[in-house]
Amino acid sequence: MKRVGIMGLGNMGESITRALLGAGLAAADILSFEIKPERMRTVTEAYGIGGAASPRDLAAQCRYVILAVKPQDAKTAISALAPSIDESRIIISIMAGITTSSITSMLGKPAKVVRVMPNIGVAVGEGALGVTANYLLAPDELESVAALLAPLGRIVEVNEEQMDAVTALGGSGPAFFLSFLEAMIDGGVKMGLPRDKAYALAVQTIKGTVALLEKEHSHPVLMKEKVTSPGGTTIAGLIVLEEKGFKGIVVRALEAARTRAGELSG
Predict the structure, then answer these.
(1) Angle CA 153–156–157, to nearest 5
(2) Cα–Cα distance for residue pair 258/152, rounded to 1 Å
(3) Cα–Cα distance measured from residue 88 to residue 105, given in angstroms and rounded to the nearest whole number
(4) What is the pTM of this model?
(5) Following CA atoms 147, 152, 157, 163 in sequence, which dihedral angle do they give, to the nearest 10 degrees?
(6) What whole-number distance in Å separates Cα of residue 15 and Cα of residue 122?
(7) Ramachandran assignment for 138, one of left (phi > 0), alpha (psi -120 to 50 degrees), beta (any other)
(8) Across the strands, what pairs with 4?
(9) 8 Å CB contact between 117 and 129
(10) Nearest-angstrom CA–CA distance, 222 and 211
(11) CA 28/CA 3 separation, integer angstroms
């Protein structure tokens, strides 16, 4: 039994569904449950996947159960799944701040649990996913989960103690990056470029830089040096960023996000 159950069909649940189907998983191998009947009907009809009558029914028919509900709904959702969870099932939780031990506590029994922190990139198969598992999963079972999630993006295995940092870097990171991109676009407008042209130039600059970085397997510092000529335009701008403490601001923003993640999980 390799069927995948997705509990919760919000934006992330739908993105996961779309990515799995796009990677070749048959619609018949995906079962879903959503507490809002209209939402469940909309998504199941759009993608041709099945809808379970209840959380218990979902877990009974699937080996992998992806928990894509809001953290505040965790206890209700997990309690509803519990009767059908046994040693043959693997729970994959994408709920921010809910630890693997909290999940087994809510279940009221031991269970195989994998905790995943995805980000918005999963919508296009380019997510950054921090993954950790509890002690009950065998290595081959964790490998099977990684293979299942691979269509969503890059899998990075971490210790559970590092998940708050993953939340900050991968989960909140896109917002910090987008703030920088917004500033680049506004800077282009301030210098006289039409906004649509400033947008196109800024987005392509970032896109091309990341593509080159990955192609050359280079470190950002080394690539930065390649475009920083003595006495040139780039070094003039970099000096301003350094004077304003740009790196420190980014690091402190990440640390603030990690601290908040810890507060929410506590």
Answers:
(1) 140
(2) 23
(3) 18
(4) 0.86
(5) -140
(6) 7
(7) beta
(8) 30, 64
(9) yes
(10) 15
(11) 8
The model's pLDDT over 88-127, given as tens digits with 9 standing for 90+, comes to 999 999 998 899 999 999 999 999 999 999 998 988 889 9
**Extended strands (E) in 41-143:** 50-51, 64-67, 90-93, 112-117, 127-133
Q: Residue 155 region, left (φ>0) first, then alpha (ψ -120 to 50), else beta?
A: beta
Contact by Cβ (8 Å): 117, 97: no
What are the pLDDT digits (tens) for 169-193?
999 999 999 999 999 999 999 999 9
What value does the mean pLDDT take over residues 225-234?
Answer: 94
* Encoded tokens for 203: 């987005």
CB-CB neighbours of 249 under 10 Å: 12
Strand pairing class (153-157; 127-133):
parallel
CA distance 36 to 154: 31
Cβ count near 220 (within 10 Å): 9
Give which of 59, 29, 1, 17 is closest to 149, Cα–Cα: 17
Q: What is the rounded end-to-end Cα distance, in angstroms, of the chain? A: 35
> Rounded distance, CA 152 to CA 119, Å?
10
Confidence at 7, pLDDT banded by 50, 70, 90: very high
Among 130, 133, 62, which residue's Cα sits nearest to residue 104?
A: 133
Q: Which domains does the chain have, with CATH numbers?
A: 4-158 (3.40.50.720), 166-265 (1.10.3730.10)
Burial 81-116 (b: 16+ CB within 10 A, else e): bbebbeeebbbbbbbbbbbbebbbebbeeebbbbbb
